[in-house]
Automatic annotation (TrEMBL):
Protein name (Swiss-Prot/TrEMBL): Cysteine synthase
Signal peptide annotation: none
Organism this protein belongs to: Halomonas salifodinae
GO-annotated molecular function: cysteine synthase activity
Keywords: Amino-acid biosynthesis, Cysteine biosynthesis, Pyridoxal phosphate, Transferase
Family as reported in the entry's similarity comment: Belongs to the cysteine synthase/cystathionine beta-synthase family.
Length: 296
């Protein structure tokens, strides 16, 4: 008998029907539980994909130093993948990231470099690029790397089509690097152009981990606006309320971006009927406990 490795169990996450939070109008609301991945988030998929594909092209090899800017989940996933594969991982992130995220990255052996909260992800990306230009490591660049959405075209999209038996009508996803929504949209639209792809971005002034409203000059190069049918603005309080609803009414403890995804899915449900609406639960809520959000 041949047993799987940790790489083999990334993906194929559960898709579950919400039982107490109603979508009304004979709609079915389904949550894709990406926190069930080994390192706890949807980012396990692109992290492994980017390293595997770079290795296959001969661009990196075990022992190399990899440098990446991250707001949290990709960093944890890359730290895990680097530990599996034998790379030194340097992660650059805003100092505002939760302590659980920082400690998880360090637990996998990654080296952390912080930039100011005010500088945010833009400053982290700038520093990563300058380090790579100085030869201090090799970059994967999740924001421009086609192997990011490829993971979802090959994995998440086919899983959703199979799990819903082709009945999915709406796909709702937070947009950060946009890798998830780009890859899933490409796959689902090839199967059924009628499937509606809904992206989420924060309202002006909102700070929701995992969802970004990028300045034009920092817009991820993998993003193609034509693959998204509709974009919804999500408020800070709205995302946090629905995050707590997921935990308290459905037993699904997840992060704030997942609360935003639920809020977006419910907005869609108000306007449609007999729909099968899938939203991405990006990660697990245990990495946000120190923020106090669940006690509000």
């Amino acid at each position: 008998m041949q047993f799987p490795t940790l790489e083999d169990v990334v993906g194929n996450t559960p898709l579950v029907r919400l039982q107490r939070i109603s979508a009304g109008r004979n709609n079915t609301l389904l949550a894709k539980l990406e926190g069930n991945n080994p390192a706890g988030s949807v980012k396990d998929r692109p992290a492994l994909s980017m390293i595997q594909q770079a290795e296959a092209r001969g661009e990196i090899r075990p022992g190399d130093t990899l440098v990446e800017a991250t707001s949290g989940n990709t960093g944890i996933a890359l730290a895990m993948a680097a530990a599996i594969k034998g790379y030194r991982m340097v992660l650059i992130m805003p100092e505002s990231a939760s302590e659980e995220r920082k400690q998880a990255m360090a637990a996998y052996g990654a080296e952390l470099i912080s930039v100011t909260k005010e500088g945010g992800m833009e400053a982290a990306r700038d520093l990563a690029e300058s380090m790579i230009a100085r030869g201090e490591g090799k970059g994967l660049d999740q924001f421009a790397n086609p192997d990011n959405p490829l993971a979802h075209y090959r994995g998440t999209g086919p899983e959703l089509w199979r799990q819903t038996e082709g009945r999915i009508t709406h796909f709702v996803s937070s947009m950060g690097t946009t890798g998830t929504i780009m890859g899933v949209s490409r796959y689902l639209k090839e199967r059924s152009p009628e499937v509606q792809i809904v992206g989420l971005q924060p309202e002006d002034g909102a700070s929701i981990a995992g969802i970004r409203r990028w300045p034009k000059e920092y817009l991820p190069r993998i993003f193609d606006a034509s693959r998204v049918d509709r974009v919804l603005d999500i408020g800070q309080e709205e995302a946090e309320i629905h995050m707590r609803r997921l935990a308290r009414e459905e037993g699904i403890m997840a992060g704030v971006s997942s609360g935003g995804a639920l809020a977006g899915a419910l907005r869609i449900a108000e306007r449609v009927e007999n729909a099968v609406i899938v939203f991405i639960v990006c990660d697990r809520g245990d990495r946000y406990l120190s923020t106090g959000l669940f006690g509000a």
